[in-house]
Write a structure and sequence with these properties.
By secondary structure, this protein is mainly α. The protein has one domain: MFS general substrate transporter like domains (Growth Hormone, Chain: A). 80% of the residues lie in helices and 0% in strands. The protein has helices spanning 3-34, 37-55, 61-88, 96-102, 105-125, 128-147, 162-177, 180-194, 201-207, 213-241, 243-264, 269-297, 303-315, 321-331, 335-352. Helix 1 (3-34) runs antiparallel to helix 13 and helix 2 (37-55) runs antiparallel to helix 6 (128-147). The longest helix has 32 residues, at 3-34. The chain is globular, with a radius of gyration of 21 Å.
Amino acid sequence: MKTGGAVALAQIFSVIAIISFVLSVPFAYFSDIVGRKPLIVLSSVIRTLGILLIFISPYFLPILLTGILIYSIAPTIASGAANAILPESILDKRILGRVISLFPIVPLVGMSLGSVFLGHLTSTSGIFLPLLIISMLSLLRVSVLLALKETLSSKSRNLPDVREVFIAKTKELRATLSRPELRAFICMEIVGGLSFFSAFMPSYFSSVMRLNETVIGLAFSIFMIAQAIGQPISGFFVDRYGCKLSFLLNSMVGAIILASLTFIGPIYPIQAIFLLFISSSLSAFYNTAYSVYIAKVTTEEIRATVYSAMSAIKVIPSAIAPFIGALVWNLSPLLIPLSLSALCLLEIPFIMMLRED
């Protein structure tokens, strides 16, 4: 992959992510008022509408583009609600990490193996059958979420008017985000967002490690499988040792592996991929700790909003990350993993400021 292509691709994905996550915040705020399930149902209905427009638009480009846009935005509507309802439905908080860690496994395996299968299906049967399969899987996910018990209190719904609801939630949100540990968490997420120039890693694999596109594609599929393997392990670790140690483990080991990649990658590419396999499995520790930590430090009345706000905070720095990556690449491609390692180390002071009640 050429450097310019990496910049353009990373920029496109970062812009889409920013739009999606910024839009998710008001929907999450609404979810904190009316409940989780109405937003999950609304998201499902809108996604279905997008799929229907794609189905009926083989010969009319505006309808096709509208359908794709609606389909892409639909998950945004329920992202905060979906993240919040899972920890709220778990009665025994001692197993919070173990339960939360299981949910990403199927999507990770699906992304790893499903892309090849759906790509082959699209080339042989057209777009409609893959869309039908994706629709059925989405419906299954929605059914699971709707089966969860919703525990959001109705205290905010009993306030006299919308203005009082807005004032009450805004005050609680401001008080929560002003806590020192939450500020540290926000800084940690901003640093994580800057690491989005990891989109240059495929270019690093091809230019520095001399791997072909087939091997690179296989490697990234294996990395997702590694993360799926790490998910249940991370759940036990988070429940036993806490979120703070999980964040530290991910950042410290990730920093060591990425730094070593600078020296090992050009000489021993297979060994370097194995090290990245380990690093990918440890990223599960970050994902599980992230979900559990927010669940622990927020109340139900603002939880969905905080989930979406934190996601938006992380993706906003990703807008400049591709340009940082291009600058680093132009200095030397060998500096890409070394720079990512430095960002992992930069997270550690903020992790040390986190508190778990």
